[in-house]
Amino acid sequence: MQTNPHEPNIASFYHLTGRAVADSPCQGMACFAARHLDPDRWHTAQTQAARIYCLGKCYAAPAAGGDTRRPGIEIHAAQPVVLKRVVAGGARTVQSYTGHGGYTALAQALRTAPDAIVQAIEHSGLRGRGGAGFPTGRKWRAVFQASGDEKFVVANADEGDPGAYIDRFIMEDDPHALIEALVIAGYAVGASKACIYLRSEYPEARIILKQALADARQQGYLGENILDSRFSFDIELIIGQGSYICGEETALLNSIEGRRPEVRVRPPYPTESGLFDKPTLIDNVETLAAIPWIVQHGAEAYRTLGFSNSRGTKLVSLNSLFNRPGLYEIEFGMPVRHIVEQLGGGLKTGKLKGVIIGGPLAGMIPPQLLDTPFGHEELHAIGAAVGHGGVVVFDEHTSIAALIHHIFSFGAYESCGKCTPCRLGSRRIEQIFEKPLQTGKAPAIEKAEWEEIVAALAHTSLCGLGTGLAEFAHSIERYYTQELTACFA
Ligand SMILES: Cc1cc2nc3c(=O)[nH]c(=O)nc-3n(C[C@H](O)[C@H](O)[C@H](O)COP(=O)(O)O)c2cc1C
Ligand code: SF4
What we know:
By secondary structure, the chain is an alpha/beta fold. The protein has helices spanning 29-33, 39-47, 84-87, 94-99, 104-110, 114-124, 136-145, 166-173, 175-189, 203-218, 249-257, 285-289, 291-297, 299-303, 336-343, 376-380, 400-414, 420-432, 434-437, 445-460, 464-479, 481-485, and strands at residues 72-76, 152-157, 193-198, 234-239, 280-284, 306-307, 310-311, 313-318, 326-331, 352-357, 364-365, 390-395. Helix content is 41%, strand content 12%. Helix 5 (104-110) runs parallel beside helix 9 (175-189) and helix 8 (166-173) crosses helix 9. It starts with 28 loop residues before the first helix and ends with a helix. Bound molecules: flavin mononucleotide (FMN) and iron/sulfur cluster.
């Protein structure tokens, strides 16, 4: 891919250009939630030159780059769709992957008409795992139908949501599942090139994917005439430079093109005019990882897993405040209480204050709503979300003022700057909550200001960063009213 020569100085937009995460401590939401477990590390995290919002080690939070501990990994679904090889110790080489039946779905797909593959994905009920939960088949259909001599596929491997380490383990332990899925996707929608946009905070995944791509090319799973078919396809690995907004699909496209990674106004949607204005399919890593299984086992088998309009399995990653933090493959429909109390085994250091699922841009679930089933519409109905599936619990060490301050500080730091309420309003809310955080009270007038900014974020934001901040704020107004009111004089 080429970069845009008209914007040569765009590197200063990013937080980690030219910086390796190395041993740096993290200040993502899971590390914030567990800051009382290691106050010194948390202090270092907050005072380093560039902030690091999530290293994908939330099970060991507060974490640092050099941490090599691994989480518990378990399957709690009738059938493992994504974690089967990961739970068995991983399949990093082509040999181990094919030993587990890998690349047979690709061979099968290449004998099938592209339209029939798209139809199977539509019928499976698979929805995007990157956050929005959009029906994957519908997106594949749009790119399949788009006219154009050139189309692209992009794997969104930016996994920026603090609290999530789902894609990280897929890429590190099962890299060929992602490669196989991308080749199938390219064949189905009529693309000849893909790229994986990987965040720089995952240096191990970078090394493993680079090797896996070289091995796949050498074994004939990538390149010209794949498996002696007439289909040719290749994948490029592109590394981010530390910017949460680059996980948003249109900012991501701008980043690949070398432009300022601002969110694009839609329409046109990427399916119609995406990377370099060509029809582009953008899917999250976990979404893609389910594709070989669906091709092999059939859409109907996939549909039988899950419940309601949320079919199949979902990976959830639990933070270090749980007694059993780890990565779990579950079926949709499991009550949040089961995730918190059975899988996670309850909290380590005190009473549950609330749960945030799917990153900081989502509502907090209070203890009285734990019986809500884990499903897109069901969580949406209580102002929460499935999101990408990071599950972060907070105990009573975290006050509402501290939480609001942390989340809006994150929002302000990561805003792309295109919408004023997000660029300036989130910074203002961060300032408003500095006083209650230091045991004083914010002036009463600032409560009205908070409400105005939250309303502006909800109604005028171009992307989910701004609207997500508002969703979080609404959940605090709704479920933590007393503690919020007490922040003001
Ligand atoms: C602020 C913001 C950040 C996002 N970050 C990610 C991310 O890190 N990874 C991801 O897969 N999707 C992310 N998304 C969602 C993508 O825009 C897009 O919906 C997703 O890549 C589509 O793939 P899917 O349909 O497979 O989920 C983000 C969205 C927003 C608004
Ligand atoms: S809501 Fe924020 S991050 Fe999203 S487009 Fe607007 S300014 Fe950019």
